Here is the input.
Amino acid sequence: MPLAELARVVSGCVGSKGLDVHALGAGDGKSETRLVQYLCDRRQVVDLRLCLLDISPPLVHAAYRHAADAVEPRGVACFALVGNFLDLRRIPVLSYRPACSPRERLYTMLGCTWQNLTDGPAFLRQLGDVANAGDLLALDVRLARAPAGDVAAITAAEPVVTQGPPPSCHEWLSGPIRRYCEGYQAITFRAELLPRGLVPGSYEINLLADVTMRPGRGERRTYTVIRGKSYDPAQLATALEPLGWRTLQSWPYGLGERPDHGLVLLQRM
Ligand SMILES: C[S@@+](CC[C@H](N)C(=O)[O-])C[C@H]1O[C@@H](n2cnc3c(N)ncnc32)[C@H](O)[C@@H]1O
Here is the structure.
């Protein structure tokens, strides 16, 4: 992930002011901590604070320990909160900024978290309500490999649509079902393609688990185990402007020959 490039542009926007990095859905916090390390390396932003938010208490715990060990020695104040990023108004430290504050804010949603939301644009509208003009937002998204709406092209470009998830992922994908779905007997996986998403140029591939239950526990259940949207960067930028988020820069990245992800830096207008 081009976090060093992101840090360079964020540093340029923030200058010598203080910066609060609000990591939404921080998970284990490793990417977010790496970003803050790059910000420290640039030595431009003088006063950094990192606040890690996740809905999972064990992940918040792990993220805090990792971040505090790595960046507190470099003078970064770290905080960690268990909470729901869909309800930021209830978390004043992430949503309220005193009018006199000279600090800048960078929200991050890394690890493709935004594309997992049921309604990504609604989330950005809600984040826009608590953000101030000039606040920054870093989103990490999967890039579309074919034009939205073209089922044949998407199916050709995305083997998972016909083949389902690879067997090597089955154990991982079935973990929550094995732990929490009492009475399950057998689990099979398949993919579902929604050729057009809410954002123009996007499509959605969901991974579904069909669960056969033991006799007497209900016949069959279907769970969505992964929701994955893919975006066209130019159409994404156009769609986010009316929501009050201007794209400052985006960096395609990935391991293959062709970048399959994009890191996007937005600014609240
Ligand atoms: C795909 S992971 C990304 C983790 C990390 N940012 C990374 O880059 O590896 C998404 C994270 O968001 C958290 N999450 C999901 N829904 C959430 C919610 N409503 N509020 C807060 N955290 C949430 C999950 O617990 C998970 O750790």
In short: Residues 151-229 form one domain. The mean pLDDT is 96. The chain has two domains: 3-143+232-268, 151-229. The pocket of S-adenosylmethionine is lined by residues 25-27, 31, 53-56, 59, 84-86, 110-113 (CB under 6 Å).
